[in-house]
Specification:
By secondary structure, this protein is mainly α. It has 14 helices and no strands. The chain has helices spanning 11-18, 22-34, 40-50, 62-74, 86-98, 102-112, 131-142, 146-159, 168-173, 180-184, 188-205, 212-222, 229-241, 245-257.
Length: 258
């Protein structure tokens, strides 16, 4: 399979990440997949779940982990609450899943922070406020589990309230550039959802994201395929927002005629 190009954060941050030794790089990769803030003890449990050993060859302990976390924070790769810095969340998660240890790290993040057992229909429950549910939703994207993604997206949309903050996909991808190669490697449900969010960026600001023109070109080339039918209407929306009215009329005729 052709390697997927990794989207880069700011050059300085990405260079700092790329230069990390194997152990701290693995820790940051796991942090990017864990996504939400976690205490040192909880993250230690997650890291232990991977089966990866500490630099001394023994099981991880607070004594061996804490200096690693402190150094990553000193380098500006972790926030004050010891989460992966926002600029690196997406590119490091992509890089993590492309690594030999990627599936193991994602599995550890799921096992160490299982979804809550109470019903999502229980009064006062909000999936938007459930970090474990958000993590599971996000992991479905990076592990390319289209069925799980669709299930979680449906649950999330039923629970979503703008009053509680932006939609999770907006939080993750509205201002985060993605490469066409990476997005095209996802299942169609994931591709369509993220592409739609990219169009939302144009709707909200009037300016296309840096990644949108290439994405539009890619999906325009695919829209004749039966399984890409949903993208035709998304592209019509793009043409309408961009003021390509003649193209809109022509494509409506093509779609309705087809």
């Amino acid at each position: 399979m052709k390697p997927v190009a990794t989207p880069k954060a700011t050059p300085a941050l990405w260079d700092r990440y790329a230069r990390l030794a194997a152990v701290p790089k693995t820790i940051l990769r796991l942090k990017s997949l864990v996504f939400t803030p976690t205490g040192k003890g909880a993250f230690l449990g997650c890291l232990t779940t991977t089966g990866i050993r500490a630099p001394d060859g023994k099981a991880w302990t607070a004594r061996t982990l804490n200096p690693e976390l402190d150094e990553l924070a000193r380098q500006g790769l972790l926030t004050e609450d010891l989460s992966c810095v926002p600029e690196l969340l997406h590119p490091v998660a992509v890089d993590a899943m492309a690594s030999p240890e990627g599936a193991m790290l994602a599995d550890a993040a799921r096992k160490a922070f299982p979804a809550q057992t109470r019903s999502p229909y229980q009064y006062s429950y909000s999936m938007q406020a459930d970090p474990d549910a958000l993590r599971r939703f996000r992991l479905a994207i990076y592990t390319n589990d289209d069925a799980e993604f669709s299930t979680q997206l449906d649950r999330y949309n039923k629970d979503f309230s703008p009053a509680r903050g932006p939609h999770l996909l907006e939080r993750l991808f509205l201002r985060t550039p993605v490469t066409t190669a990476w997005l095209a490697s996802r299942g169609l449900a994931i591709q369509y959802a993220i592409f739609s969010i990219k169009l939302s960026s144009l709707l909200q600001s009037g300016l296309p994201g840096s990644d949108l023109p290439e994405l539009v070109g890619h999906y325009r080339a695919q829209q004749g395929r039966e399984d890409f039918a949903a993208f035709r209407w998304a592209l019509l929306q793009y043409d309408l927002l961009a003021g390509h009215l003649e193209d809109v009329r022509r494509r409506i005729d093509e779609i309705e005629g087809g």
